[in-house]
Amino acid sequence: MAPGPTHMKWWGWGDEQAEFDISDKPELWPFIRDSVGITGEATRTPAVSFDDISLPPPRTNPAFRAAINTALGGERLSTTKRERLVHAYGKSFRDLWRIRRGIVDAAPDGVIYPENEAEVATLVAAAGDHDVVLIPFGAGSNIAGCVEPAHDESRMVVVLDLRRMDRVLEIDAVSGTARIQAGVMGPHMEQQLNAQGFTLGHFPDSFLFSTLGGWIATRSAGMQSDRYGKIEDMVVALRMVTPRGTIETRTVPRSSNGIDVKHLCIGSEGTLGVITEAIMQVHRIPEVRLPYGYLFPDFEDGVHAIRACVEADCIPTVTRLNDPAKTALSFAYKSAAPPLKALLGKVVKNYLKRVKHFDFSRSALMLNVFEGDRHTCPELHRRVSEIYRRHGGFALGTEPGRSFERGKYDFPYLRDWVMDRNMMADVSETATVWSNLLPLYHSTLSAIETAVRRTGVKPYVGCHVSHAYRTGASLYFTFGCLQQADRGLEQYLYIKKAAEDSFLAGGATLSHHHAVGTEHLPWITEDISPAGVTAVRALKEGLDPRSIMNPGKILPSERPLEAWGLAEPVVSAFDRGGSAG
Amino acid sequence: MAPGPTHMKWWGWGDEQAEFDISDKPELWPFIRDSVGITGEATRTPAVSFDDISLPPPRTNPAFRAAINTALGGERLSTTKRERLVHAYGKSFRDLWRIRRGIVDAAPDGVIYPENEAEVATLVAAAGDHDVVLIPFGAGSNIAGCVEPAHDESRMVVVLDLRRMDRVLEIDAVSGTARIQAGVMGPHMEQQLNAQGFTLGHFPDSFLFSTLGGWIATRSAGMQSDRYGKIEDMVVALRMVTPRGTIETRTVPRSSNGIDVKHLCIGSEGTLGVITEAIMQVHRIPEVRLPYGYLFPDFEDGVHAIRACVEADCIPTVTRLNDPAKTALSFAYKSAAPPLKALLGKVVKNYLKRVKHFDFSRSALMLNVFEGDRHTCPELHRRVSEIYRRHGGFALGTEPGRSFERGKYDFPYLRDWVMDRNMMADVSETATVWSNLLPLYHSTLSAIETAVRRTGVKPYVGCHVSHAYRTGASLYFTFGCLQQADRGLEQYLYIKKAAEDSFLAGGATLSHHHAVGTEHLPWITEDISPAGVTAVRALKEGLDPRSIMNPGKILPSERPLEAWGLAEPVVSAFDRGGSAG
């Protein structure tokens, strides 16, 4: 068997050999330490070693194995401990918390790397014939529990790792479309598109370790969504192999052909079938790309400035507004500046403080990228700057934007780094309409802070806005704190629950772009309504009557909160501000 | 019982008292006559009279009637001949051809006008309890057979006419959203929105006689779609009452909450439930609105010019490019000009012919509307004009645009007028990617012309492009000819089939914005693939297990072409260029 694609380290983010080094960021550790209330050295909490992990004994299905080996030729099922382990989880905090402790209760029993759609169809048919569960797998960076096998599964569970289906098959330069295989990873796809002058324009935080199929299956959003849309806005057509046949939609810009079947596949998270390829809308690589930064007196001003740009149809490719806590983290994340730059920084800071009366504990950093040609890009930059200026924004030049571009994929590494030091750090994100954005921001900030405090530790909670639409925007919360000894996971779930409860109570959605998986199941019924769940269940039963496709995702169990890992007595105990009884 | 809303004339388009008068269009009749090859007077073929129509005997269901009267109070079921007749059909050519001859084989048995969602829910529950079929009904202008009762239905069939649910309930001016009841008609909705400074920006050709719920249920498109999107792009959230409960989606700009339940409701054509209200994205009424016209040397140049504008992100609110045949019809449709204007017209014509070497038999009229504020609108106009100029477009000033604005809702009246004179006139539309637009244009034009000629008469076939997207555009064909005595409907179906066959063979879709209904059922499986049909069927069975909601639409029967009215021997006979054996 040819070797599979390389995998991320099983205990964290990035390639196995990748080391995350903060030695060039002198202000980062002091900032973190103060934020979460560490005095002295951090307690080191490394992951267990590979050898210390024991996986559950594999379930086997010799008839399935024989059938697929006959049909596909050769031994295609990989059952090594390493293959099983790297495909057991995604990269959510919950996943990492468990795997770092060697807790792997539900690893898959084998992994197959199909080479093409015909092989996928053969595998789905064989799985149906032999009652084997299949889990479609991109690069495993999902953070909502989308790829973890169900714990109560008695059938053999096989992961289909799609990453050998990694080619841009054709580009229609006139129409601006590209036919792309679902298993291609972000950088490899952009490389193939760029070679012909195009870009997809989809750059999620997971870009380096995620695939087109994964993006479509989870309704992903990239940091350039303001210009290029969310992934569902870019899919022109797709193909999905289901147990009841292959859904194929036509390559047309719009249609009125009844219910839009494409939208039944997008966001289906592997529960209906395997997305094998898609026709994506692509764009000529812009001539000019200009990163830029601004500082606003406060978060509210920044939000109003973004909305004003949307209303004026004057929209940068990237708009990311950090709230004060996130702004402070951004500044702490800066590499040490050479003396002249540091001096200049001090001059600007003094000017803002003394002349413009900025209160730095309240100010908000806005990061943008402007794109276009030599005429339109400067004009857009001018118009946006003018709108920002009217809302109190102060132009910081290109350096903050460049600094953002350098560090934009770093957060998951930082999460591993703090997890090595007995802290937790995670995110929860949502979207809401403009009129509700600031109320929801304040109520959720307060809800998360309260929840962290109730677990007995000091909270760091920040937020940014990074996806703006005509009717509203996303809110992306980041929180961190010290882990309670031996109760870190329940503590985390309690805090995460506070965020999600706040989203739903505040009229927002359970996630703007992280998917449902298993981790957001406690909120799915409230989000899409019981009849909405009935509709999704009908699709599941119709297309996958034996429930062989990634069961346990999207559709909630009877008691989803308990299934997620949080029992009512634990919630009550934390609510009282103490430890569980 | 309070009187229901007024209805269109049962035998054609528009209010009962509306008369369509062409006496101010001196060139129209000569143009039509020459186009379809009439010599002398047209044969008059008026509709039968109301009294000459007999409806099938009504099916009754006393238990249902008693249940709803008890639940809603008073007698709510209207069973008069007039109510049954005006709700029997939409306004497709096939509908009008039949009703004008008194052929009504499957009228509904009664009509109810619910006042609110609670009443709709009561009615859907009662229909489930008593096995009554419900057909949600907007204003009845659909032209794909979406509202006609199934011919083989043995259960009582009741139309829910939603038009008493006609209010804009609230506007969120900050977010640019409006909560609107599904039964509101276009003009009444715009009037309510305009009063608060907003517009939906959705103006389909049927605008005067269609409803929000109808637009959503059929994935409608309006003539301003280039700026405001198709209806599915405008729906932020919606509510749909199904036999398994009410689907309710959240008012958020985007989400990653699994399969997007909103998109299961959009385009469902009443087969899953009744859309009762929606949160729609609305827009401030633009400060400036500028209609404008251009003439291109040929259709191809015009298409390239539209694509260049899309690529340059330089997009008028309305862009409508007529091919030569449609251009000739547009000029023939002009009202008689006063002498000076006529003289000026002649001067321009001479200049184009002698100086610019325009061949008027090939030239293509482009009609635009530009919108924006006092700064952006002229700038957009300037940039578009510059792109058009580079593609050979000649600016005609504001008059052609104004003339288009005056006549933009007239076509269905003209169709009635020609049907009164033994002609047929109808439309077929699709969408495809840019690289395929001109090949599909030529092949479909030729397919329709050939089909008409095979039925023994002279064809008029024209086309326009009126919805452009980044990856492609729509093609909207209009065809007309003399009707074959006694075989007019089969002749029509044969021609329509040629258009649809050409769309599907050419990689396009069965409709860009007219829905599936019953008339496009022969092509649905090819369009969305057999597994796509399986998915839609799964939804139908899951949400409407007793199939009480508008059965027979979207999902094809075993032999959809025959069900539509076209038997294979008829097709073969026409194919041979003769009449059927």
Give a summary of the structure in a few sentences.
By secondary structure, chain A is an alpha+beta fold. Chain A has 22 helices and 17 strands.
How does this structure look, described?
- Two copies of one chain form a homodimer.
- In chain A, 55% of the residues are buried.
- With 581 residues, the first copy, chain A, is of the alpha+beta class.
- Chain A has helices at residues 28-36, 62-72, 81-86, 93-100, 117-130, 186-194, 212-218, 225-228, 231-234, 262-265, 299-311, 324-333, 339-354, 376-390, 399-407, 411-419, 434-454, 488-505, 524-528, 530-543, 560-564, 568-575, and strands spanning 110-112, 133-137, 157-161, 168-172, 177-181, 198-199, 235-242, 245-248, 274-281, 283-284, 288-296, 318-322, 364-372, 394-397, 423-433, 460-465, 472-482.
- In chain A, helix 2 runs antiparallel to helix 5 (117-130), helix 4 (93-100) packs antiparallel against helix 18 (488-505) and helix 17 (434-454) runs antiparallel to helix 18 (488-505).
- Chain A has four domains: 53-161, Uridine Diphospho-n-acetylenolpyruvylglucosamine Reductase, domain 2, CATH 3.30.43; 168-284, Uridine Diphospho-n-acetylenolpyruvylglucosamine Reductase, domain 3, CATH 3.30.465.10; 288-408, Alpha-Beta Plaits (2-Layer Sandwich), CATH 3.30.70; 412-575, 2-Layer Sandwich (GMP Synthetase, Chain A, domain 3), CATH 3.30.300.
- Chain A is built from 22 helices and 17 strands.
- Helix content of chain A is 38%, strand content 18%.
- In chain A, the strands form four sheets. A seven-stranded antiparallel beta sheet of chain A has the order 14-11-13-12-16-17-15, with helices on both faces.
- The interface between A and B is large, with 86 and 86 residues.
